[in-house]
Amino acid sequence: MKTVKVGIAGAAGYTGCELIRLLAMHPHAEISWLMTGKTNEGRRLHEVFPHLRGVPDRVFQALEPASAQGVDLVFLATPHGVAVSIVPEFLEAGCRVIDVSADYRLKDPKLYEEWYEKKHTAPELLKEAVYGLTELHRSALPGARIVANPGCYPTASQLGFLPLVENGLIDTDHLVADCKSGVSGAGRGANVDFLFSEVADSMKAYGVAGHRHLPEISQGLALAAGKPVGLTFVPHLTPMIRGIHATLYGKLIKDADLQLLYESRYQAEPFVDVMPAGSHPETRSVRSTNTCRIAVHRPQDGDTVVILSVIDNLVKGAAGQAVQNMNIMFGLDETAGIGRPGLLP
Amino acid sequence: MKTVKVGIAGAAGYTGCELIRLLAMHPHAEISWLMTGKTNEGRRLHEVFPHLRGVPDRVFQALEPASAQGVDLVFLATPHGVAVSIVPEFLEAGCRVIDVSADYRLKDPKLYEEWYEKKHTAPELLKEAVYGLTELHRSALPGARIVANPGCYPTASQLGFLPLVENGLIDTDHLVADCKSGVSGAGRGANVDFLFSEVADSMKAYGVAGHRHLPEISQGLALAAGKPVGLTFVPHLTPMIRGIHATLYGKLIKDADLQLLYESRYQAEPFVDVMPAGSHPETRSVRSTNTCRIAVHRPQDGDTVVILSVIDNLVKGAAGQAVQNMNIMFGLDETAGIGRPGLLP
Amino acid sequence: MKTVKVGIAGAAGYTGCELIRLLAMHPHAEISWLMTGKTNEGRRLHEVFPHLRGVPDRVFQALEPASAQGVDLVFLATPHGVAVSIVPEFLEAGCRVIDVSADYRLKDPKLYEEWYEKKHTAPELLKEAVYGLTELHRSALPGARIVANPGCYPTASQLGFLPLVENGLIDTDHLVADCKSGVSGAGRGANVDFLFSEVADSMKAYGVAGHRHLPEISQGLALAAGKPVGLTFVPHLTPMIRGIHATLYGKLIKDADLQLLYESRYQAEPFVDVMPAGSHPETRSVRSTNTCRIAVHRPQDGDTVVILSVIDNLVKGAAGQAVQNMNIMFGLDETAGIGRPGLLP
Amino acid sequence: MKTVKVGIAGAAGYTGCELIRLLAMHPHAEISWLMTGKTNEGRRLHEVFPHLRGVPDRVFQALEPASAQGVDLVFLATPHGVAVSIVPEFLEAGCRVIDVSADYRLKDPKLYEEWYEKKHTAPELLKEAVYGLTELHRSALPGARIVANPGCYPTASQLGFLPLVENGLIDTDHLVADCKSGVSGAGRGANVDFLFSEVADSMKAYGVAGHRHLPEISQGLALAAGKPVGLTFVPHLTPMIRGIHATLYGKLIKDADLQLLYESRYQAEPFVDVMPAGSHPETRSVRSTNTCRIAVHRPQDGDTVVILSVIDNLVKGAAGQAVQNMNIMFGLDETAGIGRPGLLP
Description:
The structure is a homotetramer of 345-residue chains.
Chain A: E1 4-9, H1 14-24, E2 29-36, H2 45-48, E3 61-62, E4 73-76, H3 83-92, E5 96-99, H4 109-116, H5 123-128, E6 130-131, H6 134-137, E7 146-148, H7 152-166, E8 175-181, H8 196-199, E9 204-205, H9 213-225, E10 231-237, E11 244-251, H10 258-266, E12 272-274, E13 292-297, E14 304-311, H11 315-329
Parallel strand pairs in A: 1-2, 1-4, 2-3, 4-5, 5-7, 6-7, 8-10, 12-13
Antiparallel strand pairs in A: 8-11, 9-10, 11-14, 13-14
Helix pairs in contact in A: 1-11, 7-9
């Protein structure tokens, strides 16, 4: 079986080290180089991430697409705004690209500019990029040169809402996604707001006025609905390291056997687990795995449906889904390297 | 100034020890006795709660209303189902009662039976009991013999929804309360589900099919609305010790200056703090305090209003509001003993 | 390559579910049955541990050695005191046994009786049992019928002290092991002391007067020293799920290049990682792995040596070391199934 | 009763906000101004610390001793190195000073230079400064112009060791202080090392080669012993917000009734609580309080004594002890404003 040679740019953050961990265990992938920003340039992998002693040591190189030659695939886990300009260079160097940052997710360059406060300089690539929510765009992945890997909130929220929206069962003008995220979603930058002493033993909402994942979720749901949707998205910061818990609310406009609907929709999906009726998935049940666990509720048999959808933000919400997409892009078994049971407790 | 003599029944749980802490600092209260169940009967306060060394030591007595004579007020922090039968005995002994358990909250004995799976044996006292959400029933407190202290979720949720519901601004058929609670809300009983290794670093919803606080919140909002309401209530267990974060969603049916509305409604309230527009209150900002902090949002100026309401579940959600009610019942300054700033970090 | 058929008794606790996780990923092991105590008897694996959905479902059987036939190896993860009597039955049924509980660790039955308050009814098997600290007794494992898998504190402490003690470098009359453990070490029983609200955001020592792991550590170090040792062992409960951090103190009586000593002693060991001089291993760096990370310090070049030794209590401190021992017992690659990098953050 | 007018310099960190909290509840203190560094200059107190809404709002001023006039006392909670130069200016402005930073703790300016890598420019004030471990230097406080408030580790460690050292009961050449601290001890600066995702669910030692609190503890114990001492000090970072747990080891060289010794030594101390024999104090038992709880152990009646000493690092380890010292300096009741029971759970 062939081996995919990969490079990771932006390898010193949480998504970066998760990619290294997953790819180190992958039977058909080989990491050729690690690139990073100024802070960690020149440092050794084992120094920055002692937990990876055992994995072959490497030196973090400067972020230079020119030195990317010789790999089949580049994972970009760079801060938002970096990929816009370097993706074209990597493509030119003959690499395929999975961008785990947000730069190629929004199809409309105006939306990108509005939410990321930066002009998108490669609008034609925006069109070309395949949005890598695997369960929605699997068929487009084998031929893709560039995959825009979904955000963590968008993955949990879209997988949760899709069966309802695709089947026109709920009022898409008044969707509510109340989402809770572990702190690793905020990244590994020096920031007072995410100090242990600031976020432990506490909880808060943030970005209620507008969070960058709002247009991304709306774009995906609109595609599924065939029309624009109205979504209220409220993210919350929760004192846990990993995990996203999306609690999704919709008003039913048609009747259906919801449990059956979800089970059918995701029957063939290796990484979506529809739980038995009445379940309450815990985020820890997917810790370290690429699985999205979903439970379907209709309290008091009323007209409000409540979907509970949990993922590990660094795996199915980032590095794991990226590897899942890589597997499909390169004709490998979709579960290769990412099919292990989760870590609990 | 007079001193209120109090007894605490059910004093060995979290609400019990919080009552002891608050009353020990109260300038006009004196604890006469502590009663408890079998597990801790005969043990000393300092043995069960070493953090209270410094507060006068006492022995936990058996739970016997007959020995209650001589106190002005009894706080009941017993497990649900106990107060039903012992409240009448305490009243007979000449004490007034604040029941921090759920037994006297639901006005309709059938509802109580449905949700607590036990017949209510004192329906006439249900009628008499004043529901102690101070900000809603303050005027009835001075003359009350029995006060039913609200639950933690109901306190945060009702205070958050009240201004909208009282003014007919939202569609009361489709209210959503997505609530997150710290683990102390589950009490101090031996239960695998609340072990550190089960709930740390994880999050989950629970009771989506129906939680006992649902009819309590609905009852309060219906009273404010003047008609029945439709509420979807989803509680979540969060890895923090104290704190409730209620994220409340409603569909606006009339326009109004919501920020102004909330500020006016709660202007005179010593324990409700409406934050500046655009705020995101953290649960830790009310840790150890009796304050409810509220922020009002209307994302993208759409027709969905989002209210963020946080309390400390053991203070404003239990022991603190009980002391607030005591203060009013006995003609003391409403803030006596509970007006200190919160503990952070 | 052959497949080892295994059974797990005591499979519904933390060590049990960790064994299931590790064995499910093992290329040469197959789980034949799961046995457990009354609480979970008859329940399905997926119901008790939803995170293991994906692993083949099974029903927890009653704990009956008679039904053990047909497996090569039984892992016992039962509460202390159970293995004493059922190990002989499993042996009789023709199975080899790895006892992860404490019942076969202390060679002297009087010591067992003193510390576990129960007479040991199989003293001849105590003699036969191989103490499964792999790095110390590897050569005895291939022929062993019964392996007494070490405790978590003893694993971290002995691996940390061994090179010093084996070489007579420190005063063995005054050893100090100050150890910190995550809460999962206390097991999955219903116990108020280990509720989230009791142990989160706090730390305490326990068992200072005498903890059951004290004679176990002493026994191992005495064997290495060739004479009795004097050990002060103070365990601490730490608000983390997994992990043991042993901080070990000894007074040097001979000079030596300590860093070199440790590197040489563990050079060939796949699961002991001596870190570069000056390091401070974090418990999270070994989370989910079978590795023990050790750092050697001699502050201010004085005569006190400080060894830092970290493990994951459920892996190298329990289930992982058990699988490592199984690998050796059955002639498999020692790292089979347990060689993956750790989960961080 | 008089009111002490105070100013707080370095008011936007954790010690700063704890000083504000404690002084806001103090019956005889009044905060005149708050000074801070560039980051928060010009911001309002309520904006930086929303939990202090309710306390009078103020604007953080620039750090300029010239504007200090009119206050009786200045608390300095500035980063180490700042107080060296501004203390003289505050003294000149006629204020007394309590320096909660480390700048005036080490009596020997060479030691300061060695450990803080900065020349001490006010060596004569070093001599004058009273080391504010209240229980050791109470009598010198009333007349002090400048008090050097002890560090958190030094407070817990010295209070734990003092009775043994003062009475020559242990070998002072081989003291061991194994200390565990909550993360707030690291302050409120932007630093990757203290992000939630870096320190939660993990533990590590740090600074084993030499930590700045080592010479401070040694200085205090040497004073008590009347001769130099040999101390091995190993601090650990623990995933909790507040709290220090010092586990202290010494080799007994004389016999004594240790429990009685400790009870006698601290009998009259309002903020040192010697627990009953056999106790294991939890850090949470002193959360938010100025109390140091101590337990005395002599495992297996051997010659090693183990002292457990816990404090809240931000209260007795910083702001609370500073207020205690203020009370004595100004002739107030020593417990004024800091005598409340702790917050638990």
